[in-house]
Amino acid sequence: MRLWRRRRRTEDDFSAEIRAHIELEIDRFIGEGMQPEEAQMAARRSFGNLTRTQERFYESLRLMWWEDLRCDLRYARRTLTRTPGFSAAAVLTLALGIGATVAIFTVVNAVLLRPLPYLDADRIVAIGHYAPGLTQTNLQSSTGLIAYYRENARTLTRMAGFKMRDVNITSGGAPARVRAVAVTRELFDVLGMHPERGRPFYESDVQQGAPRVALLTHATWRSRFGGDPDVVGRQILLDGHPVDIVGVLSSNVVFPDPAASITPGFSGLREAQLWVPLWLDPKGIFGDFGISTVARLTPGITLEAARLEMDSLQHRIPERFRIPPKLLEKWGWSVRVDRLRDHVVGGMSRPLWILFGTVGFVLLIAGANVANLFLVRIESRRRELTVRLALGATRARITRSFLAESLVLALAGGAVGLLIAAAGIRLLVAYSPARLPRLHEVSVDGTVVAFAIALSLLAGVVLGALPMLRLPRLAFAALPLDLGRGGTTGRERHRVRRLLIVGQVALALVLLVGCGLMLRSVARLYTVDPGVRIEGLLAVGVGGGAQRDRTQTVTFYHNVLDEVGSLPGVASVGAANILPLEANGMSGTAVNPESRPRVENEVRPLARYKAVTAGYFETLGMPLLEGRRPERADSELDRPVVWVNRAFVRQLLGQRTIGEHFGIEGRTLEIVGVVGDVREFGLREDVRPTAYLPLRAIASVGLQEMYVVVRTTDAPAPAVSALRAAVGRVDASVPLTTVRTMDEIVASSVAEMSFTMTLLAIAAGVALMLGVVGLYGVTKYIVGQRTSEIGLRLALGARPADIRAMVLRQGLGVALVGVIVGLIAAYALARIMASLLFGVSPHDPATFLMTALVLTAVSVVATYLPAYRATQVDPLVALRCE
Amino acid sequence: MSTRATERERIALLQGTLDLLILRTLVFGSEHGQGIARAIQNQSEDALLVDHGSLYPALQRLEERGWISAEWSTSDNNRRARFYTLTRAGRKRLVSETKRWHQLTAAIGRILGPEEA
Questions:
Q1: Given A6, A13, A24, which is nearest B34 (Cβ)?
Q2: CB-based contact A632:A542 (threshold 8 Å)
């Protein structure tokens, strides 16, 4: 360390000084009357050992440290290759720990730490409005609000709006329904980017009568247009309209992130493949919510300042839009301004940090195992160390040579770990839920490599420091007398080892509890009744086609149902515009049934509604509780009828159910049936009041695609090609978007939770394994050290059972302390997990108890084996084992 | 070590005293290493032996601690040499060390008793 503090003096300078000294001496001797040669010799003689003086200066420079280290590293490499078993065990254990930690860190780094790939991304904010009294989700913004903020907000310079929409594309390959995002031209300024090719959108692109234009994302340009360099200027057909491609976005722009909470209400996580311009009415109206909004902070303005200003602007909304202030209050109206990154990452930040902590635990356990290996190694090298100390090696010098060994091991472990991490990341990305935002950005970069190196160095230094705990004792205890093998070993010599085992068991228990809680949550989730019969159910997405009006749309889908229904292996068919468990995008409306008028200040839950055809309820297996089923005639004749679920009856209706009237989409509908509750919003979400309308009632408003549900018979389900052909017989230009079984839909609904569970299970499994190996190894080692003692006991008449009991008692004692410490730690830490759990308390006694039992049982096995082996020794051999 | 012949007559310096003597020598002005060694030997009337192998590391050490500073300069007889000067901190150190030394010798003297003839 001194090396850095001091202004370095060169060796040459020092040599010059010595030369000057000798010359001065020569001068003196000559002055005293000597001959020059004689004087020279006398001067040299009087100086003494010149080389030693030089050496001492050299050492004082601490350059020696580096020289020694290099020497130590060479020596360490030789020592380690001489004990390949130890080295391999240590490297692999460390690699496992470091690899797991680095893999999760890579995800944490990409998702949580790295800024979004935009210019000054931390100055981009997302704006959302919330009105819990109206609806549960983010209302986004409206044209009126955006216009209002653009006029008044000083803390935000640029504000852009965007909306997701799906379009049928019929050029460049097979017809497909693709996701597009409609953006205002300001988005390019807000994100601070320019298309890679071509141009951004201009004001002129949204003027009346301007030619339609679109931008391709990089991925679409590559996949659908083969990376055609002349793609700009080409014309494509979107929803049957000719559209000019004016540019291609660069590859790092994936906007909006498909998993981001910035675009809620859009089910099916798909990346936008096209950008089209969005026109916002500059006058604007207050109520047309659903426009996602991002903006850039004015230079020099903090996020807090922007939040303050936006909050204060809310107070003038009643005045500007002529809304009674009391109404806003009743809705619980509020505005939220968040960094875009926080918005994108949303709810994934907690599970990721928890996983990161988890693998940190695994690393600690792995480290403890290697530490134990090291301690054993130091013990076995007592003789060598004693000799080295006796020969005059300083403790620092010996510590340094251990440090060199641990560094070599740790760096090797880190290198292997990095490879494990790289492989692990691929698996992680492949199996992670689609809801993980910024997934496409996950990659090993400089930060990750630096993290891996830092981790390895840290591990190396900590492990290398272990001998320092031992050396003071060695220096005194291991005097030459101790050159022979120590007869008995002191109890406290194993103290560090036992502490490490306690730590390992405790950490493993914490992970097992976490894993157990997740396991129970997922199990609970699977026991939730979705309200539909899952087995033998297919869901086929069918695009809207080029139907011009409601009648055509209704006829089209009815024909599709006929064709699909006539396929072999199909028992029944039906269709809806939204599938169960995936209803995030379901529209909601306030309901005022005739027989239950709204009371002043009453806030009622919104009713969600979706469109269904005849056969939908039967196909899904939803029970009809009252009234009649939907018929095709309901749509064909445009009857004003509606079905509701039980939650609707319970929460929104009064006395009357069948025959009750209420308004949706500007029409008054009559309830003609009540069906069972379905978890439309996912297994974790409560059942909400839901209305089912005939297809016709909704056909003109936002009908993007319909999902044909198919109940198959015992015979093999129809192949995708058969389904495609069936739809093709009705209209060849209509794409099939997705074909999934209901099982898959349920699985993806629990994907996030089971992903977290799987990772926790892997971590806990590794932790358990390492912990058990550690416990086994240490018990075995201690028993080995006591071989002669045990032999003596046996010779003196101790029964093998007594010996076994003694070893077991000592091993288990340590493990049980670990279990207790672990239970306390798990109790304290479980609260962090609460938000990830479902239907189980973070302090679930059953989980805690089971985990403790499992760990204790495993510990018994791990200690029993060495205990059993100990009693197998022949007393004679054992006694001679000096 | 200087010549074998004188070794027995001269007293090797006690650990730590060399630093004190160097500081003391520099009170009278800056001096180079050889000069310091000579000054110590002369002032002790050749009773003390300055091991040059210790002298330069000692100078180095004192310089590091900031008690003396060094500069290349020219000697009386036109030789380039590294001259050492006492710093303010060095002066303070000298005072405190001298006091300690007197206490130490007095204490040891009391134990050992009066010098025998």
A1: A24
A2: no
